[in-house]
Each structure stands twice: as structure tokens, then as C-alpha cells.
Amino acid sequence: MGNRLTQIATRTGDDGTTGLGNNTRVPKNHARMQAMGDVDELNSHIGLLLCEDMPDAVRQLLVDIQHQLFNLGGELSIPGFELLKDDGLLQLDQALATHNATLPRLQEFILPAGTRAAAQAHVCRTVARRAERAVVALGQQEALRPAPRQYLNRLSDLMFVLARVLNRHGRSGAAADDVYWKSERLQQSQAD
């Protein structure tokens, strides 16, 4: 892996380029930089989500995810390097199965709303989807392993599920529910 930063303000990026972990430089608008930036933004949004009240198991899962996202960013920063491991994807699959099993069946599409924690989880979900699109775009230009794309895809699904879990956790432990889209179909089924 490349050198660790000892100084943040290096001014080497003033020319519109940035250094990768393999000591090459690319334009700051390069597809690799877009993917890295979106993964970094996702990690930051998860950090914000961690400021909210939530079950301890969800908190620990999100902390683990932050470390995996750092690994993913490290892998993206060094072309050809592998840092994201298969156990990270397995953890997401297991969490999806565990948390989905506790939730009622969806009646309709839900809005990204409810408790503040649930709404922030939805923000994480949408940023994960954008990061996934950026990784797909990079993969169309350069050879990439499927693991980063798969991890982000699964993570966005998990953030949707966790938003539902967090709505049920509610404010100070008070239960809440999903906020359903008021579709004609749902209104009709409730009228019947």
C-alpha cells in the first residue's frame, strides 16, 4: 500500500490531479476518484447515522461496515489491489437475513421517512446506490473485481432494511412504523 499521509495540505492537488496509492496521479474528476469519493461520502453518512439511538447489534454492524468501506476505498485507491474480503459480503448477507426475518411484509412502497435514524439510513441507502453506479462506471473503463460492486449493492439493500428496523426502534424505544406511499392501490386495499 502507498505511503500514509503525514501532512494533509500538500498542495500537490492544486493542478487538478490527485495521487493514488500506487504513486500515480489522475485527474480529480477521473471515474476512480468519483467512486472513491462516493464511498467516502457513504462512510461519512453512516458515521452521522451512528450518532442516533439504535439497537446495539445495529450499531456494531454499522461500525463493521465503516471499516469494510474503508477497505473498499483503499482497494479503489490502488488499481489491481485487493483489500475488501469475502467475509464482508457474507456479513451483509447474514445481516439482511436476520433483520428481514423480524420485519412485517411490505404493503406498498415506503417513503424515506419516519424517525431521524430511519431517514438517515435511507440517505445512506441512496448514497450506496450512487457509489455502486460509480463503481460500475469505473468497471466499464478498467478491470475491477466484482466484490466492490457486490458489496455496495448488498449494502444499499441492507440500509433499506435497517431503515425499517430503526423505524420500529423508534424514538427512545417507542415503536414506529414504515411511512407508506399513499398509492391508489394501498388506499383501495385499506377501503376494502
From TrEMBL:
Molecular function terms, GO-annotated: ATP binding; corrinoid adenosyltransferase activity
Positions of the Cobalamin adenosyltransferase-like domain: 8-165
Transferase is among the record's keywords: yes
Catalyzed reactions: 2 cob(II)alamin + AH2 + 2 ATP = 2 adenosylcob(III)alamin + 2 triphosphate + A + 2 H(+)
UniProt keyword annotation of Nucleotide-binding present: yes
EC number: 2.5.1.-
Gene Ontology BP annotations: cobalamin biosynthetic process
Keywords, sorted A to Z: ATP-binding, Cobalamin biosynthesis, Nucleotide-binding, Transferase
Signal peptide: none
Enzyme class: transferase
Spans annotated as Disordered: 1-22
Family to which this protein belongs: Belongs to the Cob(I)alamin adenosyltransferase family.
Quaternary structure (record): Homotrimer.
NCBIfam families hit by this protein: PduO_Nterm (TIGR00636)
Protein name: Cobalamin adenosyltransferase
Origin organism lineage: Bacteria, Pseudomonadati, Pseudomonadota, Betaproteobacteria, Burkholderiales
